[in-house]
Amino acid sequence: MKNAIETGPHTVTKRFPEGDRDRCEREWRALTLLAAHAPGLAPEPLELDAGAARPLIVMSRLPGVPLRGRPLDARQVAALATAVRQVHAAVPPNVLADVPERPGRPAELAAWIRTRAVPHVRPRVSGEVAGAVDAGLAWLDGADLDADAAPAFGPGDGNLANYLWDGTRVRVVDFEESGRSDRAFELAEITEHAAAWVEHPLEVAAFLGHCDLTAAEGVRLCACRRLLAFVWLLMLAADGAPGARNPPGTAERQAGRLAALLG
User: Fold this and answer.
1) Matching Gene3D superfamilies, A to Z (predicted)?
2) What's the structural domain count of the chain?
3) What pLDDT tens digit does each residue of the chain (263 aa) get?
4) Which of 17, 77, 161, 236 could form a disulfide with 66 if both were Cys (CB 3.0 to 4.6 A apart)?
């Protein structure tokens, strides 16, 4: 069961699947923190009913159109980077220390790749996709994904549909997978999400050029981009049946993207 979204003139009501309190509470925590420390960047939290059969949140409705599915000009790319930087830095360190880690951190994704995704996908693929899976596994065996990284608040979803452009600035929605993270991993979530390249490719170099990464963050970003590109390859390869959500050949395109990142 998916979320149910009810949109009014000034509010949005999000109903989560039955019993799904975790995602509801993560989103409420994020909205509350951002309202306190970066007001206007995300919806204002108005009402929480985590104990309902279908937990729900009522929040303010933000103006703007999603960045996904449209070519972005230089001003929009810069505004996206500004919003992302603001989210990452919004929660003060002493407060962030008490925020739980977000789901889907690198070690968790690596375990998912090895124990679940590859055994399911590898026997079903061939050619360029199979070669990229094998190359990804060889890289993963020697990858350092546990390097120390400065904590940052992570929205947890890199889909450009969650970034709304109002003609002047970008605001952020959807914090179901949010929590304590680090900048490099969260930036990789955006650059490697299918939304950043399947339709109108994001100018990744321009976007990252606005993010002022340290040398250590640059190294970690490279590893995180490879990891998430590998995750997306496995998901897209598994999505290759008739009626799949993405155009034919998307997995092959992703295989090429992963090979370029590994190269």
Assistant:
1) 3.90.1200.10
2) 2
3) 789 999 999 999 999 999 999 999 999 999 999 999 999 999 999 999 999 999 999 999 999 999 999 999 999 999 999 999 999 999 999 999 999 999 999 999 999 999 999 999 999 999 999 999 999 999 999 999 988 899 999 999 999 999 999 999 999 999 999 999 999 999 999 999 999 999 999 999 999 999 999 999 999 999 999 999 999 999 999 976 544 567 789 999 999 999 999 99
4) 161
Are 157 and 255 within one domain?
A: yes
Whole-number Cα distances in Å, 174 to 142, 162, 163? 34, 6, 9
HEC sequence for 176-228: CCCEEEEHHHHHHHHHHCHHHCCCCCCCHHHHHHCCCCCHHHHHHHHHHHHHH
Domain match, 38 and 75 both = no
Domain that holds residue 132: 63-262
Quick one: 52 and 14 in the same domain? Answer: yes
Q: Kindly list the strands in the beta sheet with 11-15, ordered across the sheet, starting from the edge strand earlier in the chain.
A: 4-7, 11-15, 56-60, 45-49
What CATH number is given to the structural domain containing 93?
A: 3.90.1200.10
CB atoms within 10 A of CB 84: 24
pTM of the prediction? 0.95
User: Can you name the residues that pair with 181 across neighbouring β-strands?
Assistant: 152
